[in-house]
Amino acid sequence: MSKIVVSSPDAPAALGPYSAGIKTGEMVFLSGQLGLDPQTGKLAEGGVVAQAQQSLKNIEALLAAAGATFDNVVKTTVFLADIADFAAVNEVYASKFTEPYPARSAVQVGALPAGGLVEIEVVAAL
User: Fold this and answer.
1) Angle 18-23-33 (CA atoms, 0-180°, nearest 5)?
2) Beta 21-24 vs 73-80: how paired, if at all?
């Protein structure tokens, strides 16, 4: 099995000992993406909506680096610091995905790295 690291100058570098993404065979696995601006390394200002938008921009850049688009995504997981933000994040999320929608889980977590409000990870099939 070959593993190819997926990265992009238009997405933040990993914050620890992991890859932003791995491509193996016809599958692409992206690590959770916070709403970090890749140029500043800081969370997008404007609350959970701005962070969700930036998270999806980061995902889009990584998918492109792997030769994929949102249409290739088959599974997502959305991590929220506050489940009360679900509707707002869902609206942003819906702007990037079309039918047939990927399978998805959404959960509230105790805390996210860097004080993030939302983190989204995806799995894509090429």
Assistant:
1) 50
2) unpaired
- Within 10 angstroms of residue 9's Cβ, the number of other Cβ atoms is 10
Fold type of domain 4-125: 60s Ribosomal Protein L30; Chain: A; (3.30.1330)
Query: What tokens does 59 get?
Result: 């995902």
Whole-angstrom distance, CA of residue 59 vs CA of residue 83: 21
Residue 75 has a CB neighbour count (10 Å cut-off) of 14
Q: What is the pLDDT of residues 43-62, one digit of tens each?
A: 999 999 999 999 999 999 99
pTM over 0.85: yes
SS (H, E, C) the chain: CCCEEECCCCCCCCCCCCCCEEEECCEEEEEEEECECCCCCCECCCHHHHHHHHHHHHHHHHHHHCCCCHHHEEEEEEEECCHHHHHHHHHHHHCCCCCCCCEEEEEECCCCHHHCCEEEEEEEEC
Per the CB < 8 A criterion, the answer to whether 3 and 100 are in contact is no
